[in-house]
Amino acid sequence: MPHSTIRNLCSAVASMLLISGALAEPQTVYFGSTDGSTQLVGYLYRPQTAGAHPAIVLLHGRGGLYSSNDNAGCTDVSPGIASSCNAATLSKRHVMWGEYWSTRGYLALLPDSFGPRSKAHGFGRFTHDDPDRADVNEKTVRPLDAEGALAWLRGRNDVIGSRIFLQGWSNGGSTALNVMIRQGSTGGYRGALVFYPGCGPKALLSPVVSTTAPLAMFLGAEDEEVSPTICQQVAEQSRQAGTGIDLMVYPGATHDFDYPIPRRQSVPANQAALNDVLDRAIATVERWKN
Fold first, then answer.
1. Is residue 60 pLDDT above 60, yes or no?
2. Nearest-angstrom CA–CA distance, 67 and 103
3. Closest CA to 256 of 246, 271, 242, 241
4. Helical axes 92-102 vs 3-20, angle rounded to 10°
5. Residue partners of 132: CB distance under 8 A and separation at least 6
6. Residue 187 and residue 191: Cα distance in Å, rounded?
7. Distances, alpha carbon 265 to alpha carbons 95, 103, 253, 277, 281, in Å
8. What is the rounded average pLDDT of the residues 166-185?
9. Residue 37: predicted pLDDT
10. Strands 39-45, 107-112: parallel, antiparallel or unpaired by DSSP?
């Protein structure tokens, strides 16, 4: 790799990490899943300005919310339990996006679906068939957590209840699609940003996402974990059913293309995709908001 490219990459990643380190840790909050039994933990990034704001719920992937440097020994994350998985050890991607939204006037809530179910360590690659993942399933369990987050945010006086959005990555992206399938035309989330989800029958409740809320799907053409081709088919079938979907497929980009770490951002296509999506995400949500 040319020295100039390495310098530019290091500068870009350093800037992102400096931004991420500039703000205070998010507030730790607790609220119920609509499964009726699980008390969830979440991390809330709030704008600096007073008044009611739009909000966005951010759904983590199968690796969980926390940095891989800290999460290996983590199991439970819940009230009254000390854990090295906490607001101070969120992964760089989650910190970056939480601060991205809060500095743009949105409350950003990151619910932890795994820690309250004794799985804060998350799961490695290609573990979809691991039986230990059954009780954090993206089809039957995690959508209830997202619906609980929506209800909790709507109960706050600093949130505009009709302007709450959803964003998810990978397993969380599949969860976001399932939330929108469940939601249909009944109202709820105003729209969803979906990053490199699994789109096969093991991941989605239906191959057609039929909803009156708009969606935007962001895929890496060289994704090594999920099939962008299947997701493009789902997007096209959903469009034919009347769902509004913006689809971006980034040539050369891999899974986790927006992860702000050198290992991911050393791929030029990932860096280009990240730069584009940082511009596109806020523009998309602002368009949906109005």
1. yes
2. 22
3. 271
4. 60
5. 119, 123
6. 10
7. 16, 23, 10, 14, 19
8. 97
9. 94
10. antiparallel
- Domains of the chain, start order: 3-289 (3.40.50.1820)
What's the chain's Rg over C-alpha atoms? Answer: 18
Q: Does position 73 have pLDDT exceeding 90, yes or no?
A: no
User: In angstroms, rounded to a whole number, what is the distance separating the alpha carbons of residues 226 and 47?
Assistant: 34
Between CA 156 and CA 131 the distance in angstroms is 37
DSSP the chain: --HHHHHHHHHHHHHHHHHHTTSPPPEEEEEE-TTSS-EEEEEEE--SS-S-EEEEEEE--TT-SB-TTT-TT----STT---S-SGGGB-HHHHHHHHHHHTTT-EEEEEESSGGGT-TT---TT-TT-GGGGGG-TTTTHHHHHHHHHHHHHT-TTEEEEEEEEEEETHHHHHHHHHHHHHTTS---S-EEEES---STTT-S-SS---SS-EEEEEETT-SSS-HHHHHHHHHHHHHTT--EEEEEETT--TTTT--SHHHHTSHHHHHHHHHHHHHHHHHHHHHH-
Distance CA 215, CA 208 (A): 13
Q: In what order do the strands lie in the sheet with 215-220?
A: 27-32, 39-45, 107-112, 53-59, 159-169, 192-195, 215-220, 245-250
106 — phi, psi (to 5°)?
Answer: -115, 140
